[in-house]
C-alpha cells in the first residue's frame, strides 16, 4: 500500500503545481460538492422536477451516507495530509505540498464520501434529466449531456479531493464506482409511496445500527477511531 500511497502523493503534487487560479477552482468544487448539498440543494431541485425523483435523491443520499461510514470502518484508508508525515516520507524526500483549511479531515478515507454520496444521490436526477432531454430532442448530444455532465462533475470532485489532500486517487475512484453502482441499484427500489414517518424511522434505524456496529467493532478490539 505504501507504493500506492506514495504514487498518490506525487499525483497530488502535480495537481497542486498548476496555475494559481486553479487553486480557488478546486477548493470551490470540494466545498460545493459537500454531501450536505445533496439534502439542501439537490433534493429540493429533484422534488421540484418530480416528486419521485426528489424522494429518490433523498433516500439514496440517506442510504449512501450511512453505507459510506460503514465502508470506511472496514476499509480504513489513510488520509494524505496525515500519512505523508506518519509514514516518514516527508522526512526522507522533498514533498512540495500545500495545506488548506479543508485538508485536516480526520477518520478513515476509503472510499471518498464526497464522490460516493454525490455519485449515488445524483443518479436519479441525471436519469430523469436524460429522459426529459430524450422526449424533447432527437439529438444524441442533447440526450448524452446529463450523463456527460455527471461524469465530468464526479471527475472534478475527485480531483478536488486529491488536490486538498483529503483523499488518495484510489479512494476517489472507489468512491465514484461505489456511488454510481449504488445510485443505479437503488433508483428503482426507492419507497416512494411511503410516508414521511417511514423515512424518519429508517433514519433512526440506520443511526442505531451504525452505533451498534461501532460498539461491536470496538468490543472486538478493532479501533475504528484510530
Biggest sheet layout: none
Alpha carbon gyration radius: 19 Å
- Count of DSSP-assigned helices: 11
Q: Tell me the domain tally.
A: 1
User: What is the strand tally?
Assistant: 0
Helix and strand pattern:
HHHHHHHHHHH
Percentage of residues in helical conformation: over 70%
| Global structural class | mainly alpha
Q: What shape does the CA trace take? A: flat
Low-confidence parts lasting 5 or more residues at pLDDT below 50?
Answer: none
> What average pLDDT do the residues reach?
88
Whole-Å distance between the termini?
Answer: 18 Å
**Beta-strand percent range:** under 5%
Pfam families: PAP2
Protein name: Glucose-6-phosphatase 3
Subcellular location: Endoplasmic reticulum membrane
InterPro entries: PAP2/HPO, PAP2/HPO_sf
Summarize the structure in short.
With 226 residues, the protein is mostly helical. Helices cover 74% and strands 0% of the residues. The model has no long low-confidence stretch (mean pLDDT 88).
